[in-house]
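Tokens for chain A. Residues wanted.
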């Protein structure tokens, strides 16, 4: 009886020691490894998103991010296509998507820089945050700088299309009448905003993939961090 009691006591002690060791390893991970693992995963997500979008067809062939005309302009465009008058609309939408595809590669350096500046506190917030908290961090820390990079590239690309001027004239008038959001009142602003939305949507998809399947992460440290979530 005494031996059984001793065995049970030893087993309990062993379980307590194991639990303490596990808790310590999780604590160490959150403090020491979280930042490195998140940086690896975010860098991977950003690079994959840029590669997917910054190529011919990256926007136009992806229904999740394809850029069409906004609001009521889009509704009119659909009607024009239905009645066989969509050639000009197609030309304009094609130019918008090509402009976004040309601009996206400029985002990579800024995204990587934002990742490098991530602090331990940032990493803890991301780990305890929502499913897209890493993407939201990138958007918050780099979106405005990326917008500045995108605008001149988009403008240069859309200026080459004669319909761009017609869009701006019509859209600005529609905006003053409250029919169209003011941020869509010129084509370069609209395409830039849509390109940014598409970029962070694709980064978010990459983050979701790694969260759901840590094995999809490119580095062992990222696998380790996301494997604990």
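Reply:
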């Amino acid at each position: 009886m005494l031996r059984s009691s001793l065995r049970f006591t030893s087993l309990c002690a062993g379980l307590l020691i194991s639990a303490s060791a596990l808790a310590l390893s999780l604590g160490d991970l959150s403090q020491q490894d979280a930042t490195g693992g998140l940086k690896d995963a975010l860098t991977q997500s950003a690079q994959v998103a840029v590669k997917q979008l910054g190529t011919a067809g990256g926007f136009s062939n992806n229904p999740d991010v394809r850029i069409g005309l906004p609001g009521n302009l889009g509704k009119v465009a659909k009607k024009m296509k239905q009645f066989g008058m969509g050639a000009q609309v197609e030309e304009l939408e094609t130019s918008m998507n090509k402009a976004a595809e040309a601009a996206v590669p400029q985002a990579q350096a800024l995204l990587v820089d934002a990742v490098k500046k991530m602090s331990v506190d940032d990493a803890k917030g991301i780990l305890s945050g929502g499913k897209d908290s890493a993407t939201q961090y990138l958007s918050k820390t780099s979106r405005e700088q990326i917008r500045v990079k995108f605008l001149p590239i988009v403008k240069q690309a859309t200026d080459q299309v004669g319909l761009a001027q017609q869009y701006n004239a019509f859209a600005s008038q529609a905006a003053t009448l409250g029919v169209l959001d003011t941020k869509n009142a010129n084509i370069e602003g609209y395409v830039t905003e849509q390109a940014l939305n598409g970029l962070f949507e694709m980064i978010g998809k990459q983050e979701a993939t790694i969260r759901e399947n840590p094995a999809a992460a490119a580095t062992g440290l990222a696998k380790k961090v996301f494997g604990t979530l």
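Residues 8-26 have pLDDT under 50 and may be disordered. The chain is about 75% helix and 0% strand.
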